[in-house]
Amino acid sequence: MKLKMNSKRTRGAILLLLMAGLSFAAGQDKPAGEQAATPAAVPAATAATRGGYVIGAGDLLQITVFKEPEASIPQVVVQLDGVITLPMVRDIHAGGLTTAELEEHLAKQYSKFIRDAEVSVIVKEINSKKIYLIGAIKKEGALALKTPITILQAIAESGGLTDYAKRSKIYILRKVDGKPIRIPFDYLSAIKGEQMDQNILLKADDTIVVPN
User: Fold this and answer.
1) Domain end point (choices 125, 157, 175)
2) Which residue range forms the structural domain that includes residue 81?
3) In 10 A of CB 51, how many CB atoms?
4) pLDDT in tens, the chain (212 residues)
5) Residue that terminates a domain, selected from 125, 156, 190
6) Contact 58/77 with Cβ under 8 angstroms?
7) What are residue 201's DSSP bridge partners?
8) pTM of the model
9) CATH of the domain at 142
10) Structural domain count of the chain
């Protein structure tokens, strides 16, 4: 009788070990699959900055011609007319082009002097994108749009509102398809954590209007 009890316990122990082993294997398989999928995911922001940024007046660029230091330039400012002046190719219109488009254009120009020229364009400083704040705000004027910024963040960057600001009457002026539109913003609700969908990311040339 004792032997039978031991036999049953042994079979039970083996069964438990097998189940534990299967659970462990399943647990190991899942993270491995997740880890394999992770490198394939590329953040949209990273993809956009690789070549989709539109160059404007005042931006500071770095132009590198591969293995050609004399043709490269560590920094050049885009002039008001959108032109940059570079070694060998002289005046090149960069304003309004994306970094990828400028790379392609410069590669063609440098290929007249350098065989199979490869060109890299890096935006070192963004100075062409601005937003504007007017009205009952402590620091009126232009604010450089160097990184994504919300309405609340822009107001904070400009010193905040004055005592006379109509906080529930603020709005953003924005051009859409060439036509101006007004986007309402209730400051009091936003700072309470309410109607946060109004606290949108600003776009270049947006104007925040704060009535008195």
Assistant:
1) 125
2) 47-125
3) 14
4) 444 444 444 454 444 444 444 444 444 443 333 333 333 333 333 334 456 889 999 999 999 999 999 999 999 999 999 999 999 999 999 999 999 999 999 999 999 999 999 999 999 999 999 999 999 999 999 999 988 999 999 999 999 999 999 999 999 999 999 899 999 999 999 999 898 999 999 999 999 999 99
5) 125
6) yes
7) 150
8) 0.63
9) 3.10.560.10
10) 3
